[in-house]
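Postdoc handover notes: sequence design on the structure in folder B. Input tokens:
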């Protein structure tokens, strides 16, 4: 018995490490840790549900490989792209395999990992404010992190703890909610706020069309439009600090990814709409290369010429292998065919069967919300392919947990 407990503790630590390592923003380290974990926890059998999702990403990688034939890309760039395009596969396998056979209370393990990440983040926030004298939103996010999808999923699990039959004392759950809520807020990430709202509404069942859901969604849409209009009229200052800077990001959010004309000589217009600039150049570069490139992309090792050096993260770059936009990145690597497969991987979350079992249906609701959020996530932050993204781990984890629950209760997933 002692050995079993010790073994479970080891796997819990491994799980926390796998969740935490992307936050270091070093994809080489993430790739190594996830690859080793996936190999150490490999299974003899896999369900059709997880294999179907993984196959989508393997097909995208295969298309990119085929389109790379006869291309003269550097070996390093080729290998780097293989590693990046494998990220969703590795994340799904790590989450699925660790949950499948190594935890007595899988959801408790996921929650503990989320709380650990939140506590570390809050300590970094505190240190940054107290000892680095950071006072602006941009500086805070630069030092403490830009977003955390994993924490939002854990926050949702905690809020709906009854629906997910989580066996943790209520007082502890309330403290966990406070900790993760504070941590999530201090990321000041628009996408995380949107993610929370979408997942919350999904768990409430409001994306299943009924009279009540139509009224609720209509009210939310109207309220959002009125709120955005108020912010637009208020016209927050671009160079403002604190909350006003956050309002400026909200004001610019609907415009930034969709603008079709950008004045590159105007640094304000260029910086505020840089994501659109990447998209414009990608469509232009791939489109001008011919029908084959449009259909299957320019392959592993390809990059976009920004036409000038741009400061990105920690250095000036002119040629970038990956864009902020996940759809455009796949268009570059695997063409329209790759984008189609990527869309099918999102639709996967909408085609999950309805269940009469409350726990399973709530997991399905969470997957439905995930599918809706992925459209935004891929457009803004590369979705599953983003180097610091951890959504794939929790998705693989929940697919596995769902199967374990059905098996332990001897229920067929009809």
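Designed sequence:
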């Amino acid at each position: 018995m002692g050995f079993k407990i010790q073994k479970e503790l080891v796997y819990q630590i491994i799980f926390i490490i796998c969740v935490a390592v992307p936050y270091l923003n070093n994809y080489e380290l993430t790739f190594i840790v996830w690859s080793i974990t996936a190999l150490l926890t490999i299974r003899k059998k896999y369900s059709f549900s997880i294999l179907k999702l993984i196959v989508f990403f393997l097909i995208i990688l295969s298309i990119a490989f085929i389109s790379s034939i006869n291309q003269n890309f550097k070996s390093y760039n080729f290998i780097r792209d293989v590693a990046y395009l494998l990220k969703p596969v590795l994340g799904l396998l790590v989450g699925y395999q660790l949950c499948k056979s190594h935890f007595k209370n899988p959801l408790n393990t996921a929650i503990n990992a989320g709380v650990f990440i939140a506590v570390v983040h809050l300590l970094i926030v505190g240190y940054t404010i107290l000892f680095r004298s950071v006072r602006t939103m941009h500086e805070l996010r630069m030092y403490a992190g830009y977003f955390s999808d994993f924490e939002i999923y854990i926050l949702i699990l905690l809020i709906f703890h009854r629906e997910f039959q989580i066996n943790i004392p209520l007082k502890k759950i309330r403290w966990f909610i406070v900790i993760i809520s504070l941590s999530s807020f201090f990321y000041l990430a628009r996408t995380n706020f949107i993610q929370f709202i979408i997942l919350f509404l999904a768990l409430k069942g409001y994306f299943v069309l009924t009279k009540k859901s139509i009224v609720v969604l209509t009210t939310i849409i109207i309220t959002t439009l009125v709120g955005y209009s108020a912010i637009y009229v208020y016209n927050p200052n671009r160079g403002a600090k604190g909350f006003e800077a956050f309002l400026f990001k909200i004001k610019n959010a609907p415009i930034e990814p969709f603008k079709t004309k950008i004045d590159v000589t105007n640094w304000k217009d260029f910086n505020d709409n840089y994501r659109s600039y990447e998209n414009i150049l990608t469509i232009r570069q791939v489109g001008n290369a011919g029908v084959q490139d449009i259909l299957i992309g320019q392959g592993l090792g390809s990059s976009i010429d920004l036409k000038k050096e741009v400061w990105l993260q920690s250095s000036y770059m002119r040629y970038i292998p990956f864009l902020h936009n996940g759809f455009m990145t796949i268009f570059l690597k695997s063409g329209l065919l790759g984008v189609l497969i990527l869309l099918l991987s999102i639709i996967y979350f909408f085609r999950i069967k309805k269940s009469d079992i409350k726990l399973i249906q709530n997991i399905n609701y969470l997957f439905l919300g995930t599918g809706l959020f992925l459209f935004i996530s891929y457009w803004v932050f590369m979705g599953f392919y983003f180097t610091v993204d951890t959504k794939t781990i929790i998705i693989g984890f929940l697919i596995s947990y769902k199967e374990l629950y059905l098996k332990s209760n001897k229920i067929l997933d009809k």
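Context for whoever picks this up: The first strand starts at residue 304 and ends at 312. Don't rerun without checking with the PI first.
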